[in-house]
Amino acid sequence: MADTTYTVSGSDINDLLGTLGERAEQIDYSRPLKSIAVYLASQAKQCFDQQQSPDGQPWTPLAASTIKRRRKGRKGGTPIPLRDTGVMMGSLAGQALGSVRDIQKAQLIYGTNLKSKTGFPYPSVHQFGSRTVPARPFLGITDSMKIRIREIVIDFLEEQIAKEP
Predict the structure, then answer these.
(1) Where are the domains of the chain?
(2) Taking the model in full, what pTM does it have?
(3) Cα atoms in the 13 Å half-sphere on the side-chain side of 112
(4) How far apart (Å, rounded) are the C-alpha atoms in residues 110 and 45?
(5) Which range (8-17, 48-57, 70-79, 100-109) has the least confidence?
(6) CB 3.0–4.6 Å: which of 21, 48, 68, 164 could bond 17 by disulfide?
């Protein structure tokens, strides 16, 4: 006995979406991208608060020599990785010094471009590590984050579909 199937093609989807399907490439996604930027900022802050990478890997603890010379970023008297002044974490929140949040019609660029007084891009050293500094990633997108991002976009598209005549 043969299977009974039905194939839905891209043109079928466009028919179902009506004029929204015809103008899908021209949709301005800046509104959901703003929501996604806020979501990514909250996730990055969680990395700092929980001292772990986006995928849940604990950050390498500070070296004893670093703890000895640090005076700031203390929680219960012990310095915390990447929290010496809080500037880097703050730069991910949006309007702060070094914040990168470029939202266009169909693209979001999010992160930080902080540099030390000497011009050294220290956030990238912490994100990726170096010969002397272990990587302590604070940016990234996990599978569960992708699900939430999809939900934000789907909610937006559902609104657009509901507006169609």
Answers:
(1) 48-163
(2) 0.79
(3) 30
(4) 14
(5) 8-17
(6) 21
